[in-house]
Amino acid sequence: MAKHHVTTTINGEPVEFLCETQQTLLDVLRDELGLTGSKEGCASGDCGACSVTVDGRLVCSCLVLGVEAEGHSIDTIEGMADGETLHPLQQKFLEEAALQCGICTPGVLVAAKALLEKNNNPTETEVRYWLAGNLCRCTGYDKIIRSVMDVAADMRSA
Questions:
Q1: Phi first, then psi: what are they for 39, rounded to 5°?
Q2: Cα of 119 vs its chain's centroid, Å
Q3: 51-54: strand order across its sheet
Q4: Please, what are the domains in the chain?
Q5: pLDDT (tens digit, 0 to 9) for every residue of the chain, 158 residues total?
Q6: From residue 156, how far is each of 36, 75, 96, 123, 136 by CA, in Å?
Q7: Which of 73, 80, 130, 157 has its CA 20 to 30 A from that of 54?
Q8: From CA 45, how far away is CA 138, in angstroms rounded?
Q9: What is the DSSP string of 137-158?
Q10: What DSSP assignment string belongs to the chain?
Q11: CA-CA distance, 147 to 93, in Å (whole number)?
């Protein structure tokens, strides 16, 4: 099969890669670029474990073809921390133990960050609605929601 040359930006860095027409963005991130933070939970866009942002829009990378990344800006969980400094959401998830097995955590964090970039004063209902596409089979979501709400409050007071 012929491979396609794709030029994009991932986590603020220019990136070029070759991919087959049918390869998903998730497969390209994990298999071609070694960015294994995004997880494959369902391969049908139902679980959110593979969530990334494309041009600031939250998407399931299992539903986007790698060739569709051409010319777009993609942010993954790997780009969330600033070097060794965790993003406030990552830090709060650790402090509040808002994670267990870790399969859903990257997608939840990416989705929560996308929410707070659009709305730094969400209600609990808005947080729950925004994260509804991210399924967690281990937690009861309470620590996740509390962590997002706490970071939103911290961001507003900063």
A1: -110, 155
A2: 17
A3: 13-20, 3-10, 73-75, 51-54, 57-60
A4: 3-79 (3.10.20.30), 88-157 (1.10.150.120)
A5: 789 999 999 999 999 999 999 999 999 999 999 999 999 999 999 999 999 999 999 999 999 999 999 999 999 999 999 999 999 999 999 999 998 898 999 999 999 999 999 999 999 999 999 999 999 988 779 999 999 999 999 999 98
A6: 32, 23, 19, 13, 27
A7: 157
A8: 19
A9: SSS-SHHHHHHHHHHHHHHHH-
A10: --EEEEEEEETTEEEEEEEETT-BHHHIIIIIS----S--S-SSSSS-TTEEEETTEEEEGGGSBGGGGTT-EEE-GGGTSBTTBPPHHHHHHHHHT--SSSSSHHHHHHHHHHHHHH-SS--HHHHHHHGGGS--SSS-SHHHHHHHHHHHHHHHH-
A11: 6
> Could you tell me the two tokens for 106?
């990257």
Encoded tokens for 95:
């402090």
